[in-house]
Write a structure and sequence with these properties.
single chain; alpha+beta; four-stranded antiparallel β-sheet; 3 helices; globular
Length: 97
Protein backbone atom coordinates (compact mmCIF):
# COMPACT_ATOMS: atom_id res chain seq x y z
CA UNK A 1 0.00 0.00 0.00
CA UNK A 2 1.32 3.43 -0.98
CA UNK A 3 0.35 6.54 0.95
CA UNK A 4 1.02 10.11 -0.21
CA UNK A 5 1.17 12.59 2.69
CA UNK A 6 0.81 16.29 1.96
CA UNK A 7 2.54 19.16 3.76
CA UNK A 8 -0.59 19.90 5.83
CA UNK A 9 -0.79 16.32 7.17
CA UNK A 10 -3.58 15.04 4.93
CA UNK A 11 -2.84 11.76 3.20
CA UNK A 12 -4.35 9.52 0.55
CA UNK A 13 -3.81 6.04 -0.81
CA UNK A 14 -2.25 6.09 -4.29
CA UNK A 15 -1.48 3.46 -6.90
CA UNK A 16 1.62 5.14 -8.31
CA UNK A 17 3.65 8.34 -8.40
CA UNK A 18 5.92 9.02 -11.37
CA UNK A 19 8.22 12.04 -11.61
CA UNK A 20 10.22 13.16 -14.62
CA UNK A 21 11.56 16.55 -15.69
CA UNK A 22 9.62 18.61 -13.16
CA UNK A 23 6.30 16.84 -13.88
CA UNK A 24 4.55 14.50 -11.44
CA UNK A 25 1.81 12.00 -12.37
CA UNK A 26 -0.21 10.56 -9.47
CA UNK A 27 -2.70 7.72 -10.04
CA UNK A 28 -5.32 6.63 -7.52
CA UNK A 29 -8.75 5.05 -7.13
CA UNK A 30 -11.66 5.42 -4.73
CA UNK A 31 -11.80 9.21 -4.77
CA UNK A 32 -13.72 12.06 -6.40
CA UNK A 33 -12.69 15.04 -8.47
CA UNK A 34 -13.85 17.35 -5.66
CA UNK A 35 -11.53 15.64 -3.17
CA UNK A 36 -8.63 15.80 -5.60
CA UNK A 37 -9.22 19.50 -6.28
CA UNK A 38 -9.26 20.17 -2.54
CA UNK A 39 -5.92 18.37 -2.14
CA UNK A 40 -4.00 19.49 -5.21
CA UNK A 41 -5.19 23.10 -5.67
CA UNK A 42 -3.75 23.93 -2.25
CA UNK A 43 -0.22 25.25 -2.91
CA UNK A 44 0.80 24.96 0.75
CA UNK A 45 -0.29 21.32 0.90
CA UNK A 46 1.57 20.36 -2.29
CA UNK A 47 4.74 22.32 -1.53
CA UNK A 48 6.10 19.20 0.21
CA UNK A 49 4.75 15.67 -0.31
CA UNK A 50 6.07 12.40 1.10
CA UNK A 51 5.43 8.95 -0.34
CA UNK A 52 5.26 5.99 2.05
CA UNK A 53 5.19 2.38 0.94
CA UNK A 54 4.20 -0.19 3.56
CA UNK A 55 4.81 2.41 6.28
CA UNK A 56 8.34 3.31 5.13
CA UNK A 57 9.28 6.65 3.58
CA UNK A 58 10.33 6.02 -0.03
CA UNK A 59 10.40 9.52 -1.58
CA UNK A 60 9.90 13.21 -0.92
CA UNK A 61 8.73 15.76 -3.47
CA UNK A 62 9.24 19.53 -3.24
CA UNK A 63 7.40 22.42 -4.92
CA UNK A 64 4.97 20.51 -7.14
CA UNK A 65 2.39 23.26 -6.73
CA UNK A 66 0.95 23.81 -10.23
CA UNK A 67 -2.07 21.61 -10.96
CA UNK A 68 -2.12 20.86 -14.70
CA UNK A 69 -5.12 18.51 -14.82
CA UNK A 70 -7.26 15.92 -13.07
CA UNK A 71 -8.74 13.24 -15.30
CA UNK A 72 -10.79 10.11 -14.80
CA UNK A 73 -9.83 7.04 -16.79
CA UNK A 74 -11.92 3.92 -17.39
CA UNK A 75 -12.37 1.77 -14.30
CA UNK A 76 -12.54 4.69 -11.88
CA UNK A 77 -8.81 5.42 -11.98
CA UNK A 78 -7.90 9.07 -11.45
CA UNK A 79 -4.74 10.74 -12.69
CA UNK A 80 -3.41 14.06 -11.42
CA UNK A 81 -0.63 15.93 -13.21
CA UNK A 82 1.39 18.43 -11.18
CA UNK A 83 4.21 20.69 -12.37
CA UNK A 84 7.14 21.77 -10.21
CA UNK A 85 7.41 25.54 -9.71
CA UNK A 86 11.02 25.56 -8.60
CA UNK A 87 13.43 22.83 -7.60
CA UNK A 88 14.70 22.58 -4.04
CA UNK A 89 18.32 23.54 -3.42
CA UNK A 90 19.71 19.97 -3.51
CA UNK A 91 17.97 19.24 -6.83
CA UNK A 92 19.30 22.43 -8.40
CA UNK A 93 22.85 21.73 -7.22
CA UNK A 94 22.72 18.17 -8.51
CA UNK A 95 21.50 19.40 -11.89
CA UNK A 96 24.32 21.94 -12.09
CA UNK A 97 26.97 19.33 -11.30
Amino acid sequence: MKQLTLNDGRSMEVQSVAVSGGVMHIRMILTTSEQLKAYFMDKFATSHMTLYENGKKTAEYENYTILEYIKEEPGGIWEVKMRQTEADTDTRLTALE
